[in-house]
Write a structure and sequence with these properties.
The two termini are 26 Å apart. Helices cover 14% and strands 40% of the residues. The chain has 2 domains: 63 residues, no CATH class; 48 residues, no CATH class. By secondary structure, it is mostly beta strands. Strands 1, 2, 3, 4, 5, 6 and 10 form a 7-stranded mixed sheet that branches.
C-alpha cells in the first residue's frame, strides 16, 4: 500500500535535520513548531512475514519553506561584508534564490520551491 507522509525540515547543529509524519487526514493546516519547511513524500509499505517492509521515498511535491525569499541580485546589491560567503556560495553553485528562515539560515531554493510567510506561527 502507498502511504503519504510530510517530510519536515528542522534546524540542526551543522546541517538541517528532517522528520516524517504520516499525512494528516484533514490535510496541512499551518506551520509545525520548530520547522522551517516541508514537502510531501510517499513510499510503499507492506506487512510481510518478518515485519513491515518499506520502499524508497518518492518525492511528490516541491519544498514549501517558511521565511523570506531573497535573490542573488538582492544580496549582491546590499554588498554586506557579512554576506560575502553566502554570495560566493550562491554564485559558485548557481543558486538564484534562498529562503531566510526564522532560525537565521539561508536555505537554497530550486525553481519550483515555494516560500510562504515570514517563518512565524506555531500551529499545524
Amino acid at each position: 500500500m502507498i502511504v503519504r507522509y510530510v517530510e519536515y525540515l528542522h534546524p540542526g547543529l551543522l546541517f538541517s535535520e528532517n522528520s516524517y509524519v504520516k499525512f494528516p487526514e484533514g490535510g496541512l493546516t499551518g506551520k509545525r513548531p520548530h520547522t522551517f519547511g516541508y514537502r510531501l513524500v510517499e513510499r510503499e509499505e507492506v506487512e510481510g512475514e518478518s515485519g513491515e517492509l518499506t520502499g524508497e521515498w518518492k518525492v511528490c511535491s516541491p519544498w514549501t519553506m517558511h521565511g523570506r525569499e531573497e535573490t542573488v541580485e538582492e544580496i549582491r546589491e546590499r554588498a554586506d561584508p557579512n554576506e560575502r560567503i553566502l554570495l560566493s556560495n550562491m554564485e559558485c553553485n548557481g543558486y538564484k534564490r534562498v529562503c531566510r528562515t526564522e532560525y537565521g539560515q539561508a536555505i537554497p531554493l530550486k525553481d519550483d520551491d515555494v516560500v510562504v510567510g515570514d517563518g512565524g506561527g506555531e500551529d499545524e
